[in-house]
Amino acid sequence: MGDRAATPRAPFERWPVHVFHPDYGFAWYSSEQRALITQTHVVQGRAAGGRVLCDWIDTALKEDDLGIVAAGGLYLFHDFRSLTGYDTETRTLINDRIKRRRSKYARRTIMVVKPTPIWRMAMHVTDLTLALLRVPPTNVTGDIVRAAAELESFAIDPAPPAWLHA
């Protein structure tokens, strides 16, 4: 479960913490919507945090396979507002892990981050990788309020699924 010293930021501060990892931040899962929602708490995107994120996604795809396929893919929401940058190794690691996933593994991906030129470049490269897997491009925005409005109808599980852990 979550680390008591770390708390999620708005708009997720009232949600029951499903999991916290110090190299990344928080994650929640909605079994009803087949959605993985994450929020970073680190300032720099490092490879260790990238592995945590990819492990959470890959584990969801494995453990909730039938439900995710029935939903048309996993819904991903990443609140990266704490990040001011990332290491090149991290971008490479994440794109390599994406390439290993099955076609159409995600139905929607939203990333909330200040859309600087470096983030736009990174997402352009990632979106090319996603296109090869027939996954829609990532919706990048700096507006957490507008992005999180999509989550208002989502039912976050009261407790994390057994497979979601740090």
Notes on the protein architecture:
With 166 residues, the chain is an alpha/beta fold. It has five helices and eight strands; from the N terminus they run ββββααββαβαβα. It has a single domain, classed as Transcription Regulator spoIIAA. Strands 1-2-3-5-7-8 form a six-stranded mixed β-sheet, with helices on one face. A two-stranded parallel sheet has the order 4-6. The model has no long low-confidence stretch (mean pLDDT 94).
Proportion of β residues? 15-25%
Please state the structural category: alpha/beta
Mean pLDDT, nearest integer? 94
CATH topology-level fold name: Transcription Regulator spoIIAA
Oligomer kind: single chain
Low-confidence stretches: none
Helix content: 25-40%
Amino-to-carboxy terminus distance = 8 Å
The CATH C-level class name: Alpha Beta
Query: What is the CATH-assigned architecture?
Result: 2-Layer Sandwich
| Total domain units | 1
CATH homologous superfamily descriptor: STAS domain
Shape: globular
Instruction: Count helical runs.
Output: 5
Sheet with the most strands: spatial strand order:
1-2-3-5-7-8
Rg over C-alpha atoms, rounded to the nearest angstrom: 15 Å
Total beta strands: 8
Largest sheet: 6 strands, mixed
Along the chain, the helix and strand elements come as EEEEHHEEHEHEH
